[in-house]
Design goal:
Elements: H1 2-20, H2 24-32, H3 38-58, H4 63-90, H5 95-112, H6 124-142, H7 149-155, H8 160-184, H9 190-198, H10 200-214, H11 219-242
Helix pairs in contact: 1-2, 1-3, 1-10, 2-3, 2-11, 3-4, 3-8, 3-9, 3-10, 4-6, 4-8, 5-11, 7-8
């Protein structure tokens, strides 16, 4: 029964990711912690997260320019994750996902209210280092890699497909760093890796279904759903933390 529920969780998470370009680790970890420990949930999502993020990354239109523009942020995400992943491998703090959920919820509300974060402009290099470092520290501690990377990338004013690709780049780096960190801190076991391979099937099926839905959306509808998704993901994290 636990495996069947996990398969359903990954299909749902994959579909949300296909539509919004994000949400797989947030939904997967948030629901799976009702069935297992946080570190087991993080280990289970590694392969589905990595494969779907790579799929999302290479399906976009401009991987080279994005990588050259965002590499300082990616480097800081990678290093920051390695710093705090021992906390995830050892234990989980209930207030961290709750605080993360609150941030997502508030940001989703602001976005639906037509609030747009200012573009960093000529200070983009500095902001990329800061945002990448904070995102990495939060990723290592919680296994979720959305804050503050997602609001920052949205503030860059990228189009729909470029934003989706930039999210894929950020999440790929986060997943790789998380996997390396868990491995060296004893958070990965052979059984978890095998089951993680099985979870690829529903995750990819959900991703394809979500992408089919997304391609039929115009820019305005996509951005509206993007912020609704943030709001719902934030609310989900808050409820899961309280439970």
């Amino acid at each position: 029964m636990e495996t069947i529920l996990a398969l359903a969780v990954f299909f749902l998470a994959g579909m949300v990711k296909g539509v919004l370009g994000m949400g797989l680790p947030t939904i997967a970890v948030g629901l799976l912690v009702l069935l297992m420990t946080p570190v087991e949930a993080a280990a289970l999502l590694l392969l589905p997260s990595l494969v779907t993020n790579l799929w999302q990354l290479f399906a976009g239109p401009a991987i080279g320019p994005l990588a050259r523009r965002l590499w300082p942020m990616m480097l800081c995400i990678f290093c920051g994750t390695l710093v705090t992943v021992p906390f995830l491998a050892d234990s989980a703090s209930g207030w961290v996902p709750a605080a993360l959920g609150a941030c997502l919820f508030v940001y989703g509300m602001l976005g639906l209210g037509s609030f747009r974060p200012p573009q960093p402009g000529r200070r983009e290099g500095i902001f990329s280092l800061l945002v990448g470092s904070i995102t990495g520290l939060i990723t290592g501690a919680t296994g979720v890699f959305v804050i503050p990377a997602v609001p920052y990338l949205q503030a860059l004013g990228l189009g729909k497909e470029l934003l989706i690709q930039a999210l894929g780049l950020s999440f790929t780096v986060s997943t790789l760093a998380l996997g390396i960190g868990l491995y060296f801190n004893g958070g990965l076991e052979f059984g978890n890796i095998g089951l993680s391979c099985v979870m690829l099937i529903p995750a990819i099926a959900g991703l394809q279904a979500g992408q089919w839905i997304r391609h039929g959306l115009d820019e305005t509808m996509f951005r509206r759903l993007f912020f609704v998704g943030l709001l719902l993901l934030g609310g989900h994290l808050l409820v899961a933390a309280m439970l």
